[in-house]
Amino acid sequence: MTDSDKAIVYLGSDFEKYRQTLNLAIHSNEPYLEQINRYVLGGRGKEIRPVLSLLVGRCCGNLNAESFYCAAAAEMLHTATLMHDDVVDEACMRRGHLTVSSKYSPGAAVLTGDFWLSRALAILTANCKQENILNFAKAVQQMSEGELLQLQKAENLDTTEQEYYSIIFGKTAALFLASLKSSASAVGADAATIDAVSVYAENIGMAFQIRDDVLDYSLHLKTGKPAGADIKERKLTLPLLGAMQQNEQLAKHILSDIKRIGGVEKLQEDEIVKKVIEFVHAHNGIEYAQSKLESFISLAIRALEPLPACREKEMLKNYAIYIGERSK
Fold first, then answer.
1. Distance CA 109, CA 101 (A)
2. Which of 162, 171, 316, 328 has a CA positioned 20 to 30 A from the CA of residue 213?
3. What are the distances in angstroms from CA 104 to CA 36, 290, 294?
4. How far is CA 13 from CA 7, 16, 68, 316, in A?
């Protein structure tokens, strides 16, 4: 049983209240939309954001109705962006299942994502304090900015390491930050506690995305998507950036090969992906990215020190370690 599974069991009825809130929030009387909603719910992942949100809330105070709305909104916004991303990336599979875009249509995925996004904002507006509405609204803005920066950099193939961190903050860490910060606020935590939770959230969000990017270069792991997907989308992520620093001359040839992606036959494209993966492994790109990831995890764990001693605090620490080591 993973740390994620253990946390869900430990949260018990509180996790069920969150799921009930989520199910009610995305229910639709339109049969086709409801069919897609049920399909999406059936393929849910580890629900890390709501789990962490509930753990933070219990560590900082007593969960209340706003806590469950914040947890549900976090999962709804995350799911909405995944549906949109799969259209942009033309992805066929996610978590071992057909994407909504592939099973239904790209239009259905965009519109369903829009529905989930609008419902998340609706439940926040109707049930949460203004500062938490603003937390999530800011996250949506930052997620869009991060994805757009990534698109631009994929086109130009000129991502720097600092730009990479800006990208992953926007596309991933921003929602972790909004979710956990709002959870602490919902239960009445003081400013110092909210600040500590915010530092924890941002750093595990950064680590989570770096681990995702490391896994893209791991052929032997069951991640639910083919290895090298980022390469095919011309994304220069941290493992590749780290390897390129080790051999700048060969890095120029690697970039030239990646530039050819999209303009060659699939067999040639697969050969380029294989060559890039081999380059990253040969020049310690995985180790470089993992070391940066572990620095973010250390910062996250240290940020928890001011929080009161409780089982939830220990689970938050264990979750940070799990995020840095997960294999899918």
1. 5
2. 316
3. 8, 37, 39
4. 12, 5, 12, 19
Kind plus residue range of the DSSP H or E element containing 328 = none
Tokens of 179: 């979710």
Query: Pseudo-torsion of CA 6, 194, 208, 2, nearest 10°?
Result: 0
26, 116 Cβ separation under 8 angstroms: yes
| DSSP for residue 171 | I
List own/partner pairs for 297-305 with CB under 8 A and 24 or more apart.
Answer: 297/203, 297/204, 297/207, 297/321, 297/323, 297/324, 299/199, 299/203, 300/199, 300/200, 300/201, 300/203, 300/204, 300/207, 301/200, 303/196, 303/197, 303/199, 303/200, 303/203, 304/196, 304/200, 305/196
SS3 at position 28: coil
Query: pTM, whole model, 2 decimals?
Result: 0.95
Q: Quick one: which H or E segment has residue 97?
A: strand 97-98
> How many CA atoms are closer than 13 Å to the CA of 27, on its beta-carbon side?
8
Residue 98 pairs in a beta bridge with 93
Segment 155-170, tens digit of pLDDT: 999 999 999 999 999 9
The residue among 199, 163, 169, 279 whose CA lies nearest residue 231 is 279
Contacts of residue 253, Cβ cutoff 8 Å, sequence gap at least 6: none
- Give the pLDDT confidence of 76-112 residue by residue, as tens digits: 999 999 999 999 888 888 877 899 999 999 999 999 9
> By C-alpha distance, which of 285, 58, 279 is closest to 161?
285
Rounded to whole angstroms, how far apart are CA atoms 232 and 240? 13
